[in-house]
Prior knowledge:
Chain B: Keywords: FAD, Flavoprotein, Oxidoreductase. Chain B: This is Carbon-monoxide dehydrogenase medium subunit. By secondary structure, chain A is of the alpha+beta class. Chain A contains five helices and five strands. Chain A has two domains: about 1-75, Beta-grasp domain (Ubiquitin-like (UB roll), Roll); about 85-160, [2Fe-2S]-binding domain (DNA polymerase, domain 1, Orthogonal Bundle), CATH 1.10.150. Chain A has helices spanning about 25-30, 85-95, 105-115, 120-130, 140-160; strands spanning about 1-10, 10-15, 50, 55-60, 70-75. Chain A has a five-stranded mixed beta sheet, sandwiched between helices. Chain B is an alpha+beta fold. Chain B has three domains: about 5-50, 2-Layer Sandwich (Uridine Diphospho-n-acetylenolpyruvylglucosamine Reductase, domain 2); about 60-175, Uridine Diphospho-n-acetylenolpyruvylglucosamine Reductase, domain 3, CATH 3.30.465.10; about 180-320, CO dehydrogenase flavoprotein, C-terminal domain (Enolase-like, domain 1, 2-Layer Sandwich), CATH 3.30.390.50. Chain B contains twelve helices and 15 strands. In chain B, the strands form four sheets. Chain B has a five-stranded antiparallel beta sheet with strand order 4-5-10-6-7. In chain B, helix 10 packs antiparallel against helix 11 and helix 11 packs antiparallel against helix 12 (about 300-320). The longest helix of chain B has 20 residues, at about 300-320. The chains are: A alpha+beta, B alpha+beta.
Amino acid sequence: MARITVTVDGVTYEEEVEPRLLLVHLLRDRLGKTGTPIGCDTSNCGACTVMLDGTSVKSCSVLAVQADGCDVLTIEGLAEGDRWHPLQRAFHEEHALQCGYCTPGMIMAALDLLRDDPDPSDEAIRHGLEGNLCRCTGYSNIVRAVRRGAQTMSGDAEAVRGR
Amino acid sequence: MIPAPFDYVRPSSLEEAVSALADAGEDAKVLSGGQSLLPLLRLRLAYPSVLVDIGRLPELRGIRDEDGHVLIGAATTHDEVLRSPIVHAECPLVALATATVADPAVRHRGTFGGSLAHGDPAGDLPAVAVALDMEFVVHSPSGERVVAARDFFLDYLETALGPGEVLAAVRVPKLGEGWGFHYEKFHRTAQAWATVGVAAAVRVSGGAGGGPRRVEEARVALTNMGPTPVRATQVEAACAGVELNGSATGYAAATPNGAGPGAGLDTRNGCGPGGGHSALREASAAAAEGTSPPADLHGSPEYRRHLARVLTHRALLSATTPA
């Protein structure tokens, strides 16, 4: 067993873990963060994408011990109280989900993309989400949602600056 | 899927890592980003007794511009490689191939040294290492040794790294002026492994008032055309001396010029517009010589040989197209 300290969505946890425990299992089974689903289990689908120290990772391909001392942001940490994150709202408004299974990973991957490229082209969005699979929507609405989310986020940023 | 149990150590220096590996014996594995190893553990295709985590060792991370080469620390992530101005300026082929590795989330964790030490012939970087004659700096309890890329990849997932040895850094030689580069990869889905890939570095002289553009030297290496990355030496030899007629514009200019069967490389001189491209196509015909490509769901060996020829031609065209 190993003792680790991980901050998840702003709360710091100390856990005793087996070295083989995957980060996604720590999140779901130990911390109850079931907003992050497990899809393919082979690093293909991206459903389990979370931010680890500010960059996107597939949490099925990271050991919990590797996250020791790190800061994790999951889909559950995006909203501020009742107020959804602009990307969450945009996915809702653009019908960017049907079954919703890929959505947490899509949103976290999109968040990572917008970190580097706050105003991405459709091509950049498709490229940025290449590690995330959706089997319902055919991606067009997802691309639209990311674009809309990006616009809202840059508008919010401008609003903040203008204050 | 849950991996089989193992012990985990996170040493605080390379020296400690090397001694931890030595203590742990043959069943120990080095863990860096884990993007190749963790899927293997989850699928229970690997059963290490101990994982020695070198992913956070500062001395294994970073990119330095040194005399004659670029030094890339083994635990430098693909993402860090892609963000490095040194890599883009001094070894752009590394950046071109790294940009095609998996997807952004995997590139945040996966490391340059890890994907080389993993020795997967379907990985993109081994072929680049062989094409550029990279040098591998290897640490063990008995000290440091340097292994040439051509001696590093021994077989499928098997490298020259012995038990107790850690890949610490890789030296990427600077090639100097006049080189063009391309990595051409064929894969069925965005983040999939290469069905076949081709890494090409070509030195072209002349052009822009300096006489006809002419291939002086070419280096071509193939991804997933055998249990190890392969240098396409016959292609390299056939490219030397090819004159690139007129204004090369990549695919668009790559029209056959009517050189019939058997015309071979003789067509490269004075054969009119597109002649150089036709000669590059002729040179690419040898790309599959001496290879032993695998058969799997994505293609038969014969299909891969065909791909090797076509992709080599494309890679050479792109590498010889003026920026």
